[in-house]
Amino acid sequence: MRWMVLFLFFLIPVGCNRQEQPASGSIPAQGSRTLKIGLVPEQDIFAQKKHYEPLLSQLGKELGVALEIKMLPRYGDIVENFHKLDLDGAFFGSFTGALAIEKLGVEPLARPRYLDGASTYYGLIFVRKGSGIHTAEDMRDKRLVLVDRATTAGYLLPLAYFKALGIADYKSWFKESYFSGNHEDAIREVLAGYADIGAAKSTVFYRLAKTDHRLLRELEILAISPHVPANGLAVRHDLADDLKEGLKQHLLTMHRKEAGRSILAEMQIEKFIETTARDYRPVLDYAADLGLDLTSDLPLDD
User: Fold this and answer.
1) Are residues 194 and 148 in the same domain?
2) Considering only CA atoms, which of 193, 199, 196 is closest in space to residue 181?
């Protein structure tokens, strides 16, 4: 399997240098129409909401509609509850985006290109430096923290990594394994010593490292995954064409306006780029190589 072949190249230590209660909030805007936009819990839900509020506020002003933020307490819920919450769109992660495309028929519009030029992210497997954990046998009876089953970096990557190491059933191999609910908490659990091994996405890891320098000093990266699309906006397929096209065009041109550039800079984004369902093909292939069918329910193997 091509992903497993790729993964063998990731099983050597690499350096750390670069190259979630539910909450909701309304953003006032002109007009009578309201769009409900969901967010997945990459980090603390209050920080996540604050991170996106200026962007959605600006979009609302330009479109002349009200944009209402809907924070989801866990990743899987954004697909599960898309219709229940009457969402019009969401900023999906790569796994939830692939799930939503397959199961809900959503249409991806745009995703960010960050200041470093990347419009993708990758997963990380990490331990504390000096832990002596590198091989499968080193990991036996240790504590593992994952993020959520509906994440690429926080679930699919560890499954592929352990499979490549010969660990068929991580739940019996580790003394304890649990889900943190968001990437930020998974990183902090390992940093604080509550877990021995963790998984999270690169964008959250290096964002935290800018303010908490212990991450680069005290954590060691064991493996990285292939790159997958950064969290992008996708909308329901039957959303009115004017709103669909308006959202897309305002995102794609935001970097051309002074107010837009300021908002994007705060989010460490250079600009938004067009995104299509084809960009999520690597995630679908990745899941298929692991024997997961994204058109069926996620495995609930607590």
Assistant:
1) yes
2) 199
